[in-house]
Here is the input.
Amino acid sequence: MSANLTLLTVVGVLVACGVYLLLERTVTKMLLGILLVGNAVNLLILTMGGPDGAAPIQGATDTVRDTMADPLAQALILTAIVITMGVAAFVLALAYRSYILTTSEKVENDPEDVGIAEREREEPEE
Here is the structure.
């Protein structure tokens, strides 16, 4: 089995862009990063599912293709799409709530976390 190098390159670019966006401080860029990584994973599963084939239906005959397509990859992609859309809806709800409370979508450092980090730096190690 050989994988399509072009699709694997597209997967790599999508993951790289998604990780870059996930590292940003605004919620909308984080959401776009999550969506890009989700689509990259779906494309990777589709690419690794093998070559295209006939419909995965018992008893179906196809004169063009000899083998049947792998239905597991298709089922995993459908499940991943649903999960990605659920996560996107959750992040949008968090972004809306954050914007209503702070009128900003930028994620700031929590003062309590900063204080704990400073205390840990000041304490000598044993």
Notes: The two ends are 55 Å apart (CA to CA).
